[in-house]
Amino acid sequence: MQAKQIVARVEELVKPLCEQAGVSLWDVEFEKEGGQYMLTVTVDRPEGVNIDQCEQVSRALDPMLDEKEFDDMPSYTLCVSSAGMSRRLKRPEHFQAFMGQTVEVGFYKPMNGMKQIEGTLAGYDNGAVTLEVNGEQTVYEPKDIAAVRLAVEI
User: Fold this and answer.
1) What is the edge-to-edge ordering of all strands in the sheet holding 102-111?
2) Strand partners, 80
3) Following CA atoms 88, 36, 30, 144 in sequence, which dihedral angle do they give, to the nearest 10 degrees?
4) Which of 62, 90, 96, 103 has its CA 20 to 30 A from that of 147?
5) CATH H superfamily, domain 3-82
6) Do 76 and 36 touch, CB atoms closer than 8 A?
7) Options 3.30.420.360, 3.20.20.120, 2.30.30.100, 1.10.580.10; which CATH number does 92-150 get?
8) Ribosome maturation factor RimP N-terminal domain location, by residue (predicted)?
9) Model confidence over 43-81: pLDDT tens digits?
10) Residue 1: its pLDDT value, please?
């Protein structure tokens, strides 16, 4: 099974488990970090996520991942965590939910001398992100964007 297939199948399995735990599924990632694979399930809830909810999802999902269909999956570490305050926006629904909020856009290489910019999320279209900074809107193309996260305002 390839990483995309693993992610898709885990999403199918974990959605009902999230509902049972009173949280929603934010994201699933299967990536190699250093020399080890990480299967990360990120959950969310408007009131915030607590450790018991993460544990409930993890304990319910873990035996499902021991099933035969996952036998050819490389060894990995399962992590179930909250999306957190500075959550990464990846899916169209993430961008729609936080339209008008302050975000940080990180770039693969500097754009206008900056590796990162903060502004108001003004648009999202097929991976292109529109930011408003000081009253001016700029569209950043997906090929240039490394990550988009909610800005933490203290």
Assistant:
1) 136-140, 128-133, 114-125, 102-111, 145-150
2) 41
3) 50
4) 62
5) RimP-like superfamily, N-terminal (3.30.300.70)
6) yes
7) 2.30.30.100
8) 13-85
9) 999 999 999 999 999 999 999 999 998 988 899 999 999
10) 75
Distance CA(133)–CA(122), nearest Å, equals: 10
Going by their DSSP bridges, the two strands 102-111 and 136-140 should be labelled as unpaired
**Which residue type does 47 have?**
E
Where b means 16+ CB within 10 Å and e means fewer, 28-58 reads: bbbeeeeeebebbbbbbbeeebeeebbebbb
CA distance 138 to 122: 9
User: pTM above 0.70?
Assistant: yes
List helix spans (H) across the chain. 3-21, 51-64, 92-97
Token readout for 23 is 């949280």
| Local structure of 78: helix, strand or coil | strand
10: exposed, middle or buried (Cβ count in 10 Å: 0-12, 13-18, 19+): buried
Domain ranges for the chain, please list them: 3-82, 92-150
**Cα dihedral sign for 48, 53, 58, 61?**
negative
